[in-house]
Amino acid sequence: METPRNPDDVDFGLGTSDRRYTYWRQSSFHQQSQEPKTPISIVTNDATKPLLSRTVSSIDIPPEIDYSFDYQNDTIFEDPKRKLSDLDSVLSIFRVIRSGSRQMRRLFLMISLNVAYSTAELAIGLFTGRVGLVSDAFHLTFGCGLLTFSLFAMAASRRKSDHVYTYGYKRLEVLAAFTNALFLLFMSFSLAVEALHAFIQDESEHKHYLIVSAVTNLLVNLIGVWFFRNYARINIVYRKAEDMNFHSVCLHVIADSIRSAGLILASWFLSLGVENAEVLCLGLVSAAVVMLVLPLFKATGGILLQMAPPSIPSSALSKCLRQVSAREDVVEVSEARFWELVPGHVIGSISLQVKEGVDDRPILQCVHGLYHDLGVQDLTVQTNYD
Amino acid sequence: MLFDCAALTIGLYASYISRLPANNQFNYGRGRFEVLSGYVNAVLLVLVGALIVLESFERILDPQEISTNSLLTVSIGGLVVNLVGLVFFHEEHHHAHGGSGSCSHSQSHSDPHCHHNSHDHEKHDEHASVSHECHEKSLASHDEHHEHHLCDHQSIIDSCKIGSSNSHDPHDNAHDHDHDHDHSSHAHHQHDAHHQHEHCDHSPDHRCHDHHHHANPHELQYLDSKSDSSLGKSGSQQRTPVSGQEEPKKHHHHHIDHNMEGIFLHVLADTMGSVGVVLSTLLIKYKGWLVADPACSIFISVLIVSSVIPLLRNSAEILLQRIPRAHEQDLKEAINDTMKIKGLRGIQNLHFWSFTNTDIVGTLHLHVSDKIDTASVKAQVLNTFQDVGIKDLTVQVAVHEFQMRSFGQFMPCRQQDSLVFIAFKTSMSSNCEG
């Protein structure tokens, strides 16, 4: 459905009817204005630039970092400096949140809501001596921890690349999304175990105050779902690193609300006198969560495993390869390897065996042009003479 | 228990699948599966630990009566099973603690194929199959002892990996090897003579052999130059002398297989859990302390989480394409050496990242002035980086004139030994007929 050669077409024509893209149209207006557009930034957001216009340096390699080699203060290798920068980054989170995108502020609001709610629950539970409330509060905080990690990833990923993380920190968002997905899978697993437990033990004691807390929890989470409604789909075409992270946050919130809804349903069914209602509901919830999360899990895992970019079909890549190897002065093409740093930023390296004595500049230019048209933003071409 | 099995299965599956060759989908091969499974294992352990802590808090608030009799037998049985597993991960244990947090990725028992030129897939396969054969052999020899636990097979594979580089006795041999390095330089020389081929395989990762108690920098130096010469390079001119200040860093060049470490930590966690259960059961039985059980579990899960954190950090760093910690210093030296090459105007897009814990991939763009022979410059750069263990390097050489015309303008100017590039992006039209 999507033409691989020109992913940007989708914004303007092709994909506007596709509901999977709706979030993009909305969010792009807010985020683009805050995106630093300096040419020096390592992860230039090329998805928002016209790729195909020939007048705009189509074989341009983004200048990226200039590795200055003899720095007077060896910042990389000294720990105190880095710790300072870490502390700095922690402090800067708040600054970034204030200046950050709308989604980030919403996430922050969401987390603080959750924290406030769980603190209240904890306090009530401790004072009234209801252990169920306390454990519920703990579980809520647990989930909050991962949301906070996502938030941290969002804040940190804005940092420019340095000499240690030469590709920048964007990948942190993918990692956060992966971790979130992993957590959700873990949650569904433990829900399934709980269901089994309930099935074996068949204890149908239910606590009414837990129902109240589940309802409140559901409400809080529904606010979150509304916040991230743009991402509330199972399959999303990821354009940027943020998309993955927001998607994972959204799925997290959805999974939480499904869980609370399941609990409410279970207690309702129990009060109606349905046998094994809890088992049924918990099982359904865990299956639903797995179904929800698996696509994201696969996508993020694929990126972390350095798989070939899913945004470029392998047929296009091999066609490009054939085109390169069909050139007269190219003897052999080897080690054509492409991977995605974050969604929408494809990096490749290729090694060419060139005939003796041929000027390799036009070859370089041509190869760069070909792959850049395909969407490979960061290409390294090695030319070896026979 | 089921959960543990699942986690261990992930590890087993990953270590199996990571030996498969590269294909269209996985351009670099599937070695990342091991790193990712290490990360997954670490995350799961942290989650489990946190959950256990939470549950223990609940139980402190609301102590429950536990039937001690059946619990004791079950927990002792679990302890025995886990101890058997732990024995096999003894090696891993060593390395895990040697790393001590800061920089400890990659593996020490690296079987040969990891270090061969990874371009060569046939070779890759061959080595993989050799080590598989070896697995089977030792599986056969060990089967009668232990066949009940998943992790046992895992550990055999693991120990066999150690064995395959030395001999077929997995356990003692690796230890001998270390001790030779550690204590007597004479033994070391002999050792080198005997295992020449092995050192060829290992040379870039030479410092990975345990240098815990290594006090003598000269010997280290010797090792380095040895490794260089076995590669066929003259190492002495390339390598700047190892200064005393760097010495402590070298100690941390341990190489750990993330996957194996994750599995080991899992087994360790289980063992500690069983120990805790046994202890707390005894305490409850004879002292009547109901709090003992949650207290024990909190203590143990805190221990587990703190032991997992290094693994978590290292695998996350690899997944985030960080410059490999173990090679940071070497890379810096190599870059400095590279900068001294005549006719080189600058380096750009310098990226080094470790694909797995042993394979480091690098790409860089050289800008050279047009009067120089590009091929020789490239060969020099390749050699320099190969000496520090980067086998997989892609170098793009761009002649400066060309650079001015099409890529923008680069004006290198030396300012107090620091090279600064000023890049002006110029719009230009491509003249490529693809």
Polypeptide structure, described:
The complex is a heterodimer of chains A (386) and B (434). Chain A is mainly α and 386 residues long. Chain A has two domains: 79-304, Cation efflux protein transmembrane domain (Alpha-lytic protease prodomain-like, Up-down Bundle); 314-385, Alpha-Beta Plaits. Chain A has helices spanning 9-12, 22-34, 79-99, 102-128, 131-156, 171-201, 208-227, 241-272, 277-304, 314-325, 361-374; strands at residues 330-342, 345-354, 376-385. A three-stranded mixed β-sheet of chain A has the order 1-2-3. In chain A, strand 2 (345-354), helix 11 (361-374) and strand 3 form a beta-alpha-beta unit. Chain A is elongated, with a radius of gyration of 25 Å. Chain A starts with 8 loop residues before the first helix and ends with a strand. Chain B is mainly alpha-helical. Chain B has two domains: 2-250, no CATH class; 325-424, Cation efflux protein, cytoplasmic domain (Alpha-Beta Plaits, 2-Layer Sandwich), CATH 3.30.70.1350. Chain B has helices at residues 2-17, 32-61, 68-88, 90-99, 121-142, 150-166, 170-182, 185-194, 196-202, 217-230, 235-238, 247-250, 258-287, 292-319, 328-339, 374-387, 400-407; strands at 344-354, 360-368, 392-399, 409-410, 413-415, 418-420, 423-424. In chain B, strands 1-2-3 form a three-stranded mixed β-sheet. In chain B, strands 4-7 form a two-stranded antiparallel ribbon. A two-stranded antiparallel sheet of chain B has the order 5-6. In chain B, helix 3 (68-88) runs antiparallel to helix 13 and helix 13 runs antiparallel to helix 14 (292-319). Chain B is elongated and about 85 Å long. The termini of chain B are far apart.
